[in-house]
Amino acid sequence: MMSPAALLGRVAPVLACIGLLALWQVASLALKNDSFPTAIEAIRAIPDILGDKESLINILASLRRMALGFGVAVLVSIPLGLLMGRSRGVAAFFNPLLMVIYPVPKAALMPIIMLWLGVGDVTKTLVIFLGVSLPVIYHSFEGAKAVEEKMLWSGAAMGLSPAQRLVRIVLPAALPEILTGCRTGLVLALITMITSEMIARQSGAGNILFNALDMGQYDTVFAMIIIVGAMGICLDAVFERVRARLVRWSEPQFDMPLSFS
């Protein structure tokens, strides 16, 4: 039988969402503003969006671009971060470049990339790649840097080459930190996806949102916000399940329930 604390942990997110929708409904009814529809009106617009073939194709195209940008960023950023964490020369070379790029909003790069590559999937995917890669590199770097030298010395004594030590010792030891960076990158992938589609308005969920705003369809605007939020929650929940399975060995185990007392 599930304990009250475990039950509360499962129900709490649902209660929080219901509470937010209730607060939204009350605020909308109190303000009586045409540009601020009620939560019920926005929820009623969701089936119309998902039931429209063109809108559904646009949303699926957004997810495809997001998955591609995220996947490429992870494949490139993890090895680079690990190398930076274990090699002073690699870190000294890439660190200044990353520090210059990191503070720049990725949406600010859209006009330049559009001039170079045009308005299309490549441009939007590249912006997602840039948004995701930096946190993954940082967390991979921190995870690799924290690996104990004794483990690497033991690997070298067993005859492992530097590349083998990186794959068989550094990567597993840094995996919890790497997955934390990937989780952050997943959220940023969703944000940059919507932002890029709102700027390069040809297709995608961001394009649906901005077109609805132009036409004064505010219920559709807020419905799209709910859809994007639901996408983020679902993606994060799936990733967290995968992460928990991969690094179960690193999770703290408690013999008694925690409290704030």
Automatic annotation (TrEMBL):
Keywords: Cell membrane, Membrane, Transmembrane, Transmembrane helix, Transport
InterPro entries for the chain: MetI-like, MetI-like_sf
Residues that span the membrane, as ranges: 66-85, 97-119, 220-239
Subcellular location: Cell membrane
ABC transmembrane type-1 domain location: 59-239
Similarity field: Belongs to the binding-protein-dependent transport system permease family.
Name the record gives this protein: ABC transporter permease
Classification lineage: Bacteria, Pseudomonadati, Pseudomonadota, Alphaproteobacteria, Hyphomicrobiales
